Description:
236 residues; Glycerol-3-phosphate (1)-acyltransferase; alpha/beta; single chain; globular; seven-stranded mixed sheet
Amino acid sequence: MSRPTRPSRFWETLAVVIVKPLSWLLVKKDWRHGDRLPRTGGLIIAANHLSWADPVLLAHFLYNNGRWPVILAKSALFKVPLLGRAVRGLLAIPVARGSSEAARSLAESARRLADGGAILFYPEGTCTRDPELWPMVGKTGVARLALESGAPVIPVAHWGAHELLPYGEKKPRLFPRKTFRVIVGPPVDLSKYDGQPLRAGVLREATADIMAALTAQLAELRGEKAPETPFDPAGR
């Protein structure tokens, strides 16, 4: 059975009416290479994660470039009155972290991809803990989803949301007005994994390729050299 790739007109209109003016008000924009986003078909958008604010700001960028982002959200949000109804209406996919239930979110993501949806995926699984805010070692879910589905993976790096709302803080820093920078990279080449069994080693290597592509885009956006080895919170 086909699933909708966009919310109902009510929920889409409500989100656009709230998010777009708020986004334009809060941050200046430096958006690059939005034309690299395919306008149709199943798509995995691999993004770095800096702040609780970046999903909203990224959603605005993606919407303006022709894609409705399907966001993976904490399952706890679906239980909050009103908010839970909103995230369901906006077609978010619940994720139970650290649980076997997380496999269900990947399965649902695969179904949405097959129906032509654009999945906004944070391969790190959480906001980066790297001291300089570079992408960390990624989790293998995004690689598994890409290799099983065959959907293209587009790295989308961003910078500036953490200045508006630093990770762990609840009060935004509104002044001076911040700039939200976004750059879209070309699809990650995963062709060397075609036909290979999805063993742990293959998934780790494919994940590393995705994270390297994402990090390269962020280095270009920041105008800085990225570390040679990504931060690994498990092996710090």
